């Protein structure tokens, strides 16, 4: 009997080299994309910590706060100093004006007109508003100090609360 010889098809060297070349291209492309993403994330992280970025962000947040509060109450003219309520219980124990405020509420102080407003962004309400008094030294220091350095000014207790 004749033997039948079965020949296995030979792999073409170009096919094998194309697969290897394709894999190398994908590996290089993946590494390049990871490097670009890493450099971009690093640059963004550095940029968001710059003073100019933080100043612009604070100004934008202040504008949103003022516009939101202005929809609920007529605000005085001028730029307010804005403080964030961190410990409402302590403030309420010191001044009745802060009764009903919660952490994160914002105190808008208008030194020129002598008025203060507590706006709650989380509840979208005016918690309280009323007159505010300053010492002469506080009036001068208020606009130049940061939120963390400036103490909240004395608010007169005869103000009307919007929760009553």
Give your account of this protein's structure.
With 164 residues, this protein is α+β, with helices and mostly antiparallel strands. 16% of the residues are buried. The protein has a 5-stranded antiparallel sheet, covered by helices on one side. The chain contains 4 helices and 5 strands; from the N terminus they run ααβαβββαβ.
Short description:
With 164 residues, the protein is α+β, with helices and mostly antiparallel strands.
Keywords, separated by commas or semicolons:
rod-shaped, 164 residues, five-stranded antiparallel beta sheet, 15% strand, 41% helix, alpha+beta
Tell me the Rg in angstroms: 32 Å
Form type: rod-shaped
Query: The biggest beta sheet, please?
Result: 5 strands, antiparallel
Classify the beta-strand content into a percent band: 5-15%
pLDDT average, as an integer?
81
- Strands across the major sheet, in which order? 1-2-3-4-5
Share of residues in helices: 40-55%
Number of strands: 5
Which spans of ≥5 residues are poorly predicted at pLDDT below 50? 139-151, 157-164
List the helices and strands and how they pair.
Blueprint: H1 13-47, H2 51-70, E1 81-84, H3 88-94, E2 106-110, E3 115-120, E4 125-131, H4 136-141, E5 160-161
């Amino acid at each position: 009997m004749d033997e039948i010889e079965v020949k296995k098809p030979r792999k073409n060297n170009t096919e094998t080299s194309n697969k290897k070349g394709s894999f190398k291209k994908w590996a290089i492309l993946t590494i390049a994309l990871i490097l670009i993403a890493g450099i971009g994330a690093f640059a963004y992280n550095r940029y968001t910590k710059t003073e100019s970025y933080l100043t612009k962000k604070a100004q934008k947040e202040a504008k949103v706060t003022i516009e939101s509060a202005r929809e609920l109450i007529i605000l005085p003219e001028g730029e307010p100093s804005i403080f964030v309520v961190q410990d409402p219980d302590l403030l309420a124990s010191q001044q009745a004006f802060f009764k009903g405020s919660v952490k994160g509420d914002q105190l808008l102080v208008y030194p020129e007109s002598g008025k203060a407003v507590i706006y709650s962004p989380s509840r979208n309400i005016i918690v309280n508003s009323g007159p505010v008094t300053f010492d002469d030294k506080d009036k001068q220091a208020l606009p130049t100090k940061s939120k963390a350095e400036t103490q909240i000014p004395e608010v007169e207790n005869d103000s009307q609360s919007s929760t009553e």
